[in-house]
Design a protein that fits this description.
The complex is a heterodimer of chains A (about 280) and B (about 375).
Chain A (H helix, E strand, L loop, with lengths): L14 H24 L21 H9 L2 H32 L5 H12 L3 H14 L7 H24 L3 H10 L3 H12 L1 H17 L2 H6 L8 H6 L9 H21 L1 H9 L6
Chain B lengths: L3 E9 L5 E10 L4 E5 L6 H9 L6 E6 L2 E2 L10 E4 L11 H11 L4 H15 L14 H13 L5 E5 L7 H18 L2 E6 L2 H7 L2 E6 L2 E6 L1 H6 L4 H6 L6 E7 L5 E4 L2 E4 L2 H6 L10 E6 L15 E11 L3 E7 L13 H6 L4 E7 L9 E5 L6 E3 L10
Parallel strand pairs in B: 3-8, 3-9, 6-7, 7-8
Antiparallel strand pairs in B: 1-2, 1-4, 4-5, 9-10, 11-12, 11-14, 12-13, 14-19, 15-16, 15-18, 16-17
Classes of the chains: A mainly alpha (about 280), B alpha+beta (about 375).
Amino acid sequence: MRNRKRTGWRRYVNGVSISTLITALFILLPLYWLVATSFKDPNSIGNSPPSLTPTPLSGGNYSNAFVGYDFGIYFRNSLIVTIGATALVLILGTLAGYALGRLPMRGKFTTLVILLMISVFPEVAVIAPLYLLMRNIGWLNSYQALILPYTAFNLPFAIWILRNYFLGIPKEMEETGRIDGASPLRTVWTIVLPQALPGLFTAGIFCFTACWTEFLMALTFNSSNNYRTIPVGIAEFGGNFQVPYGTIFAASVVAVVPIGVLVFVFRKFVISGLTSGAVKG
Amino acid sequence: MATVSLEKINKVYENGFHAVKDLSLDIADGEFMVLVGPSGCGKTTALRMVAGLEDITTGILRIGGKEANDETPKQRDIAMVFQNYALYPHMTVADNIGFALKLRKLSKAQVKAKVEEAAEILGLTDWLDRKPGQLSGGQRQRVAMGRAIVREPAVFLMDEPLSNLDAKLRVQMRAEVARIQRRIGVSTIYVTHDQTEAMTMGDRVTVLRSGELQQVDTPQNLYDNPDNIFVAAFIGSPAMNLYDAGLGEGARTLKLGSQELPLPEAVVRKRPGLLAYAGRDVVAGLRPEHLPAATTSPDGSHLAGKVDLVEALGSELVVHFTIDAHRVLAEGAVDKDEAAAVQHGEGVARVAAKTPVKPGDTLLFAVDYEDMQFFDPNSGLAIRG
């Protein structure tokens, strides 16, 4: 009969599950290829036909990246710049988000609209004047040349996320704190922030990812090897006559690991931070 | 402990909405004052103005005799319990209760001692290490009270703290809150929309409607001598039966629909103002318990009603009846469902449990004329002296 129920593995053979499988493979196969190739012997990467598995398993590409190509320096620089910008974004974003959400002030809506406009502004439109500015104040090839612009470009998004999260916390909690004698700053630190942690994690992870993978400003402002970050560093691995694919793949895997770990560990907060924000009562 | 005095307090919002109009009220030291009224009557706004959470547009607020208009909530030395408790979910019960004391920079030992004392009064000693999420509604409500008590404030403010509890727990907690307030002896302003809470808890009750004060009095006096139709209909459950009626010559007869009832002389002696309404229309009010079933033969003084519904409560019967008089409804005093049910002269009476009555019968009521209330049909004010 046509409508007889399927049993066993056949239950899962339908249009939806097949499309999902194809989409997942589309996304995961390149990642698999990246990781697998990074562990292949440098001399066997260009083999034709290419092998699906890294046999024999080799760590040569990784040691080449760190020893032969200064990847350790790029990793350090990326960490400093990304953590610095993320910390600034979270501190300023918390204070601004709370003020725009809760404190009595004029022009809140105008400020929020301006912030929104900044957040969609294309980086490439301001790169030239920013370069001139950095050159004039002597900040080219420095950490602050990246930390401050990264902060500026990521702050609007963080403010929006955090403001919406603060609005979801019942006003009565802050009013109770006010009645008890807590200052606005104390209220934010002791009462509001502990409840807004998912929002903080969301804003933090998005900012971290954006800063970690940013290319244009890192290439333009920090041309010196000592201040290069990972995206620029990997792009410069290729020489005139050869492209060390294995080394590039190994460096890329190392670059992806921190993001992957962060997003995986805090995935619940990321989802709730994006979907929360409805004002209660 | 302190007195609270509101002198012609007004609150007008930026959009022009006049939420509280010329409210003047005095709360004595240690008094339990209840603000009651339908939704939107301005009771919560008034409370928040006392707390300092809303600005006062005009008028003077005094706490402990001192003008407090420009003082911050902390400076006013008040403690507030909100409807949704507003407990900090990431702190334990002990930390929630002790938060205000930590802000005052008391030592850890002092904070611990005061928290334990408050916990003992409220029966929370075994729950001090729990978080609010692990507590029942009643326990959370007690933690909210503990947070207020431990402050030893001059005034307690409570904004419908029992509204989130189920009916049975609400009855239990009503007694708890009243007991705690008597024990602590702090002046308390308690806001509720539930007139049963108001009547059972308050030393005095303030009835508000659309931002205006209707009457301030003891619960019993509000019940027995309402100043206007709104208070008469709002206080008491089931609500007072209010009808358009006509007073006869010398205020000795009352025409209710097609029935003419004799008014005893005692009624006019008690309310001499009725004489000015002789031959004119009035609004007559009778509480359900003032319409017992007649036990004597008809003598012209009984009110006849056609029975629609009989509800047996065990201790008494609640009889829904109809007469051919026009029922008066005070807007906002009863909810929409009750209003829809009393369109055409329906009334409610409370009669003895063993009264032989069933729907469809015509029942004679022995009207308790001396407890009848009379109101001016235009102004709604009570007719008295």
